[in-house]
């Protein structure tokens, strides 16, 4: 039996279902944004993409935790 997903990734299935984009696409948008601070990115996802706070926060947290690709 697989371990239950916890943390920000636990939101990913509902984010994909609700907003119609795969997580990788959301993460590309976040990385391409000129914004760099966590709450700036959360606010941007909420205002520009209509995302709820919890979903935006989870995406930004997970993306920033991964760092930026070389």
TrEMBL record:
<protein>
    <recommendedName>
        <fullName>DUF4287 domain-containing protein</fullName>
    </recommendedName>
</protein>
<dbReference type="Pfam" id="PF14117">
    <property type="entry name" value="DUF4287"/>
</dbReference>
<dbReference type="InterPro" id="IPR025629">
    <property type="entry name" value="DUF4287"/>
</dbReference>
